[in-house]
Write a structure and sequence with these properties.
Layout (H helix, E strand, L loop, with lengths): L5 H6 L7 H23 L4 H13 L12 H13 L3 H8 L4 H6 L1 H24 L3
Helix pairs in contact: 2-3, 2-4, 2-7, 4-5, 5-7
């Protein structure tokens, strides 16, 4: 006599992304986000534009968490949070990216939000079935 939460019935067709799926798909999304962020935040001048071009072509980014508010540092900390199973923390950090960087991460963020909502819905459903 208990209805399943909408997030679970909606996810039943395609499934809910696993933590492993989110961790595996993060690097590709982060590279796209970094490229979009660098392009959006590059200053005027030939040197800045050339540097931006090479950074976006190489796709290099920090893999160890580092301090700072530049997109590379933010993404490095977001990936570290995700590696510690902190999906909410990773999403919060992504919110500090330039709009272009956030847009490049939007599919990943949507998947991450779906996972968090589904996990919470299962917890609430289990509690209601257990009478808690």
């Amino acid at each position: 006599g208990v209805d399943a939460p909408a997030v679970l019935t909606n996810a039943a067709k395609g499934g809910v992304p696993t933590l492993a799926n989110l961790q595996e798909s993060f690097p590709m999304a982060a590279r796209a986000s970094l490229a979009a962020s660098v392009k959006a935040t590059t200053g005027d001048g030939a040197i800045n534009k050339i540097g931006s071009f090479f950074r976006s072509q190489v796709g290099a980014r920090s893999l160890a968490p580092r301090e700072g508010d530049d997109p590379d540092a933010v993404l490095s900390r977001a990936e570290a949070a995700l590696g510690s199973d902190d999906i909410a923390g990773a999403i919060a950090l992504i919110g500090a990216l330039p709009d272009e960087g956030k847009a490049a991460m939007s599919d990943w963020v949507n998947s991450a939000n779906m996972r968090m909502e589904a996990v919470e819905a299962v917890r609430v459903l289990a509690d209601s079935l257990n009478g808690n």
